[in-house]
Amino acid sequence: MTGARRHRRRVVMFPFPFRSHIAPMLQLAELLRGRGLAVTVVHTTFNAPDAARHPELTFVPIHERLPDAATDPGADLVEQMLALNAACEAPFREALRRVVRVGGWSEVACAVVDGQWYWYAALTAAAEVGVAALALRTDNAAALHCMLSYSRLRYSGYLPIKGNRDEVLPPVEPLRGRDLIRVDGGDAERVREFIARVDNAMRTAAMGVVINTFRAIEKPVLRNIRRHLPRIPAFAIGPMHRLLGAPEEHGLHAPDSGCVAWLHAHPPRSVLYVSLGSVARIDREVFDEMALGLAGSGVPFLWVIRPGFVTGIVSDALPLPEPLTAVVDNGMGKTSWRLAHPAIGGFWTHCGWNSTLESICEGVPMLAQPCFGDQTVNARYVTHQWGVGLELGEVFDRDCVAEAVRKLMVGEEGAAMRDKARGLKAKASKSVEDDGASNAAIDRLDYQSNRNQPESSG
To answer: Biased-composition ranges for Polar residues (predicted)?
Structure first.
């Protein structure tokens, strides 16, 4: 924004109420604020962000009414997302109208809506009052391309998967049938229905799409997205947490530094960091095999075990096998600061995109254990496209775990992946330099926001 303007224009942002979605939306909010835009964050009261950690942003709750099924931690994920969409449509529309009434049409530059708010009204409500609406994808370009390709996969006979699940699907190469977005235990048709709705909203109502990625790592996939969405510009703005600087300043929660002294006592690249994210839950049997495999590997490790991580059991009630080298009992802080510690030499991850991107930025190779959603897509790219990780596979017992951990941490294969990971780290660092591709993309987004009209091409 130029100094000639008499007042700052405003962006209205609406995150999806999952931690992994709120964090990148707030990162984008801070980036736009740094460009001179005022930011209003419209949010649900369910999983509300901590406004005190972002004093220069304006927060407006929508006071939605959610059914118990939408707030139950054990709820089916797809049904939860459908319930959230249904309950939040009207409250968001009214909140957006209030913001425009208070500030005036000319003050609001655009709305940025999380891509999981698929309903048509979320993106068109802005258009009704003359405000452009953009979608933020908190997954990567590969996952978005996978979603946009579902109709083609079905038309071409690849879906539903009837044959070898390990066969690569040409429209979404290098993905196999088993790598497509899924929710285990959920209804496959409901998953495809949700994806179809997101696809439709993207094609018919979004004026642009922002993706938390960088061109050097996903340039071919970004080209494929432009073929799917020829009239919609795609802004590769990432890694957003690295664009902001110190990662601990921009998380949802203050980092837990209680394990720092323990990490300081270990040699460089000797510790495996273990975290399966903020949502995934595992059965007790899987937990026990993880624990015994880790203990049997001989590799020191730092493990995030959050409340509710094991189905039906709270974390402090878990009898942990000996010897467990260290356990972090809350997973609420950002992962970046831990991965940045020189003692960390590997990351056992669920391959959520935030965690994957943080690992790439720190040059840390990964042990991939995807659980649901886009994590299978990310895991395939980590292991077979970028070559910076090992896949645990479906056979899961303590011996396999111990072997995989040793291979990643002390084997020659792990050393080669570490070299590749350092190369990706260098590319990520270059992308966020002042003259890097991601900063150029922010400039384009800032220009489009202030122009209040979509670009004519991607």
So the answer is: 447-458
Instruction: Kindly give the pairing relationship between strand 108-114 and strand 327-328.
Output: unpaired
Question: pTM of the predicted model, to two decimals?
Answer: 0.90
Residue ranges and CATH numbers for the domains of the chain are: 10-238+432-451 (3.40.50.2000), 251-430 (3.40.50.2000)
CB 143 within 8 A of CB 179: no
Sheet holding 234-236, edge to edge: 58-61, 38-43, 10-14, 108-114, 132-137, 209-211, 234-236
Tokens of 272: 């495996």
In this structure, are residues 201 and 212 in contact, taking their beta carbons and an 8 Å threshold?
Answer: no
Contact 148, 115 (CB under 8 A): no
Catalytic hit among 21, 54, 145, 228 = 21
250 is catalytic: no
- Note down pLDDT in tens along the chain; length 458 residues: 334 344 578 999 999 999 899 999 999 999 999 999 999 999 999 999 999 999 999 999 998 998 887 787 777 888 888 889 889 888 988 898 888 888 765 688 889 999 988 765 566 666 676 678 899 999 999 999 999 999 999 888 888 888 788 999 999 999 999 999 988 777 788 888 889 888 888 888 788 999 999 999 999 999 999 999 998 999 999 999 999 975 444 444 444 556 788 888 899 999 999 998 877 788 888 888 998 899 899 999 988 887 777 876 654 555 565 555 455 544 444 566 789 999 999 999 999 999 999 999 999 999 999 988 999 999 999 999 999 999 997 778 999 999 999 999 998 999 999 999 999 999 999 999 998 999 999 888 877 766 654 343 33
CB atoms within 10 A of CB 20: 18
Integer Cα distance of 63 and 111 in angstroms: 19
305 in the Ramachandran plot: left (φ > 0), alpha (ψ -120 to 50) or beta? beta
Q: Can you read off the two tokens belonging to residue 48?
A: 């509300």
Q: How far apart are CA 413 and CA 63, in angstroms?
A: 51
Q: For residue 374, indicate whether it is catalytic.
A: no
